[in-house]
Amino acid sequence: MARLLADSLAETALPADALAEMEALNDEAAPLHIWLRTRANLPLQPAWHEAAQTPIPDPQPPGSVTGPAAPLRVLPHIWKWRDIEPYLHRIAEIAPLEFTDRQQFLLTNPGLGGALKVTNTIRIAVSIYKSGDFAPQHLHSPNASRTILSDAGGYTLIEGEKCIAGRGDLILTPAGTWHGHGNDGAEPVIWMDVLDWPLLEHLDVIWIRHDHAERGDNAEPPVEDYSQKLYGAGGMVPRFVPESRASGQGGTPMFHFKGGNVGETLSGLRDQQGSPWDGIIIEFVNPMNGASLFPVLTYKAQLLRPAEETQPFRHTASTVYTVLEGRGVTEVNGRRLEWEKNDIFVVPANMWRRHVNLAGDADAVLYSLSDEPLLKAIGQYRAQGRPDDSDVIEITG
After folding, report:
1. Is the pLDDT of residue 308 over 90?
2. CATH number of the domain at 16-42+73-212+221-394, please?
């Protein structure tokens, strides 16, 4: 299967034998629509305020006019955890962290020709950190998040806050935050990485910094549970701190939502009627202003009660789901995506979807993220529902 690798990847630094083994694994894994990382991220350009004066290259001579290429379309797809997880452990055995930047694979959408993205705005990777691993602190222009899939272990350092990972946690690194990752536990930790990289790559604003050691505050000891102390009480926010903790714009100052709290909140709402399109659903928001966590992406969690079925819904945003609990099926334009624990699936923009909890005696919990805030910002967000398979209705608000 041909790979359309992004321009923002460096040349590989893997030892020859490790590279050969990884490439063989990549050939084997290609039908699963994952790419095992053999190369580190490379910024497309310096930060806007650090850009060097470089000569402008001469334009390339025009070629023959053949008309536009056929457009690539995001397709609905599910990545089955039982099929893809073994490759994480193989990567951890073969490719040392210092050579690949991350020990991970990236998901590729079957409709996008092997590009390192699942939609035109969202990149998804799944990472493993072995006991003792540490990725040095860095800063970049994309917004990013980690959804923890392991029961426990691992951490992310963000602007001096140490976020200890637990299953179902959502850990956020808004654009312009210094952050690093590690695992000081006994067992490997696995999480799902999300970035708005494809959009920023298209806009030519990808940049990365690794000079954290030069910061004057680098010796400060990390603080745990800072997010919870300042922003963890619903309806109450501090007014003695800045609204942002990052050099980027529009990102949340709360970096850590804990899975246990998410589960308790969903369970406490289970007796409510809920949404006809999503069951019991909550949205993670910036506690200072109620906005989405990132300007481009919003994150949600939903509970489907035993045997619950939602009604058909579609909107102009693309959505990625991760299964935290349970088993069920999501029908996307008539295609059945059957899911269970840790599976990841994508519902493209404009396609009808409905969820069904296949268990008659157990809840299902899905986390989701979408580019809904971006569509709203440019005046292109629309949503429709079809109650009880009757006439289509417009959904507002």
Report:
1. yes
2. 2.60.120.10
